[in-house]
Amino acid sequence: MITVKPTDNLDLINQYERENTAYLIMREEDKEIGFVAIAPFKSTYEILEMNLNIDKPLKREEGKDFTPLNANELGLVEILIRAAGSYAFNKDCWSLCVKDKAYFDLLKKFEFTASGDFLVLYLNKLFGNTCCCNAKKDAN
Known about the structure:
- There is one protein chain.
- The protein is of the alpha+beta class.
- The protein has one domain: Gcn5-related N-acetyltransferase (GNAT) (Aminopeptidase, 3-Layer(aba) Sandwich).
- The protein is 30% helix and 31% strand.
- It has five helices and seven strands, in the order βαβββαβαββαα.
- It has a seven-stranded mixed sheet with strand order 1-2-3-4-5-7-6.
- The N and C termini lie far apart (38 Å).
């Protein structure tokens, strides 16, 4: 069973030097398989860093080719994005953003859209099939 939970390890949290950073660790049983670090930015949460313990990077460094992820790896990335979105939603935010352009190729696969220098994902797209979002649609 895969779980994603915030850590209280201050060494991991403080490395980003951003107030209220959350470091969410993805585990399968006792094995860490990935993480996502997010922090509040204006009225959203910004993805600061994301990683899976695989041989392929999630970032495409400038001038280098992006190694495509397989379906299982993309599924794990989606779990990280959903966990980050859930965390942000519970803090009364309605979106996630990323400004590190090295993540753009990957995150565009998950309905992040360009907004100035950022990519943004509105959480209603992420959780659009949940009862809470459907209730808001029905109310309009």
